[in-house]
């Protein structure tokens, strides 16, 4: 059974999905100084604002859970420009990727609660409030997923399984996260993970939400000039040497995820475009380089593939990173400016989570991507 990507939605520093993807393609950036947090490098007497990639308006004045709700509302409104969300019934599910609320300074859940329970408590508040604010009522199943950069892939994996088994007819798979509030910025600064003029090896914090609307049948005809995109496969893995381990990752776990999705898809019509969640940190750069070596060793045709790095335009957006990367990949396939008709999206969490997502155009609606 095919799983179609029927619609996209996004809320980001570069705007909704369509203009944001166009801006990323044009290498248009919109970083800004944080209005709340200044940091001083060792030896500096005067602190300077942290550079962030924040939404220009929609999240202004919101904080904590309210800021995540604002992001989710903007994403759903963007999805609603293509799909009638009010017409969705119990056959439509929601899979939502979120951060661990404690990592964002949110006091949710009991002190001895598991991460999964904290994420579910946050997810229910965010989703219930967002749907109420938009006047939407869905009776379909709802599931919530944590896991940093891999959270969205976990949500997508669950949604794909439910759709292929016939348990759902459609599903909204969404990720939202915010790294630009003071508690998170202070934590990143204390860990020396921020990109600064004096420390170019680091991340730029961002905030975003993004979603794919998946169906098992094409409900909406592709717009003129757009290709139809299908989700081929999602595979999850575990890295034995995550961030903070006694030795760095050798990239084998992430490469194994890529090998698994490529095997699941069978013979491809083109060499894939790679979409990486590399955010500028040294550990991720090392792992990414090792992944490229493993791919080349696995198949000589996978050498010198083109790669996109959405964090350059959107910043590191935590649990929403996979969703943003998937939207960027799918939009490139739809419009035909991706250099392939297949996109391989990677996700690497700070913990052991690893994932790969493979999407491509249908033969009936080929992309303008380059042939193999």
From TrEMBL:
SUPFAM superfamilies: Thiolase-like (SSF53901). The keyword Glycoprotein does not apply. The keyword Signal applies. It comes from the Bacteria. GO terms for molecular function: acyltransferase activity. InterPro entries: Thiolase-like. Gene3D superfamilies: 3.40.47.10. Residues 1-22 form the signal peptide. Keywords: Signal. This is Beta-ketoacyl synthase N-terminal domain-containing protein.
């Amino acid at each position: 059974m095919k799983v179609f990507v029927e619609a996209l939605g996004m809320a980001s520093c570069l705007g909704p999905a369509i203009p944001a993807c166009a801006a990323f393609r044009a290498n248009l950036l919109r970083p800004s100084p944080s209005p709340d947090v200044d940091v001083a490098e060792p030896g500096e007497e005067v602190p300077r604002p942290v550079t962030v990639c924040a939404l220009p308006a929609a999240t202004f004045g919101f904080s904590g859970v309210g800021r995540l709700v604002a992001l989710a509302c903007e994403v759903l409104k963007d999805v609603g420009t293509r799909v009638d969300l009010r017409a969705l019934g119990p056959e439509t599910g929601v899979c939502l990727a979120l951060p661990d609320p404690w990592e964002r300074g949110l006091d949710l859940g009991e002190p001895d609660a598991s991460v999964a329970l904290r994420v579910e408590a946050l997810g229910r508040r965010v989703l219930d409030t967002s749907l109420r604010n938009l006047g939407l009522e869905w009776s379909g199943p709802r599931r919530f997923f944590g896991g940093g950069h891999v959270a969205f892939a976990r949500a997508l994996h669950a949604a794909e399984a439910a759709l292929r088994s016939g348990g759902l007819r459609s599903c909204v798979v969404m990720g939202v996260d915010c790294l630009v509030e003071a508690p998170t910025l202070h934590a990143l600064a204390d860990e020396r993970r921020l990109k600064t003029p004096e420390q170019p090896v680091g991340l730029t914090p961002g905030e975003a939400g993004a979603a794919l609307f998946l169906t098992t049948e094409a409900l909406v005809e592709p717009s003129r000039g757009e290709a139809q995109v299908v989700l081929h496969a999602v595979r999850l893995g575990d890295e034995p040497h995550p961030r903070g381990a006694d030795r760095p990752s050798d990239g084998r776990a992430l490469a194994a995820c890529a090998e698994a999705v490529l095997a699941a898809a069978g013979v491809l019509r083109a060499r894939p475009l790679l979409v990486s969640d590399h955010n500028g940190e040294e550990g991720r750069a090392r792992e990414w380089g090792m992944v490229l070596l493993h791919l080349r060793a696995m198949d000589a045709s996978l050498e010198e593939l083109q790669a996109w790095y959405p964090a350059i335009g959107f910043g590191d957006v935590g649990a929403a990173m996979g969703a943003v990367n998937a939207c960027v990949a799918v939009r490139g396939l739809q419009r035909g400016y991706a250099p392939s008709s297949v996109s391989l999206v990677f996700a690497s969490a700070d913990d052991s989570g690893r994932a790969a997502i493979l999407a491509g155009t249908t033969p009936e609606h080929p992309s303008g991507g380059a042939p193999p």
